[in-house]
Write a structure and sequence with these properties.
The chain is α+β, with helices and mostly antiparallel strands and about 300 residues long. It has eleven helices and four strands; from the N terminus they run αβαβββααααααααα. The radius of gyration is 21 Å and the shape is globular.
Amino acid sequence: MRNLVLSILCCCVTLFMSAQELNCQITVDTQQINQTNQQIFKTLERSLTDFVNKTQWTNKKFAPQERINCSMVINVSQYNSDEFVATIQVQSSRPVYNSSFESPVFNFNDRQFRFIYQEFQPIVYNPNAFTSNLVSVISYYVYVILGIDADTFSLRGGSDYFAQAQQIVNLSQTSPFLGWKEADGNRTRWTLLDNMLNNTHKEYRTVMYNYHRVGLDVMADDPRAGKEAISGTLELFKALYNRRPNSFLLQTFFDAKAEEIQSIFSGGPKINVVRLVETLNKVAAFHSSKWGKIKF
């Protein structure tokens, strides 16, 4: 009986320890600056890795195999005392049902990332206050990753996570850092989230669900049906393009998906892709070289 109780306790502890949502690889790249002492950057990298992967971001339980694979690469271009000027490349993926394939769902380079950091300072997320730009930016992207991932499994399933990201944006409005306000540019954290939640761009979230859940997730059992579903749902982007020809979300979607789409429609069972290629060349002309490689 004692051994049984101990086994149950061990299982409970294991479940608690593995309940975190993300499996995030964080890299602090200093190749652009001349710094021989790398200690503070390594400390920052370790602290952020622990912060993202060990914080409980939601009230849901994630088994180890359910954790979202993602990465954040912080490219430091300037460093002076405790002030950092950098960019942050954020990527995430989700598994495809009945396969070993990971499908990229988010790929974004944020070029407005300036923050203050002193070695060994605590990195803690407070959902009710702006404590530092470092914490706010990283936490914002955690919730964006969670929201996009949830959207691929249920229609608009990420709304609660996007609402939390919106709270971070709202709390950051009075900070002196760029990227949080409408006036800061057209490829910012403010713009990304505004587009996600704005009904003007409603097709994006519908496509994210249909593409993955109705398309990719059935391809192991019925490749033709999966390809037809993906081709059909991409047609929805024409309505978004007609309203917003230079849509930030269209660029974000195809930055993550262009190579995958090219691969899907360049092999396997044949379907009619004439209309699809026309649509892709219209809504994502910036990837036309890839669409030209779709052969049938």
